[in-house]
Amino acid sequence: MESLRKIINKVYFLWPAYLVFIMAMFILPLFSFGEYSIFENTTSQLGAQNTPNAWIMNLVFILVGFASIVEGWVYLK
Question: Domain range for residue 11?
Answer without folding.
Answer: 2-75
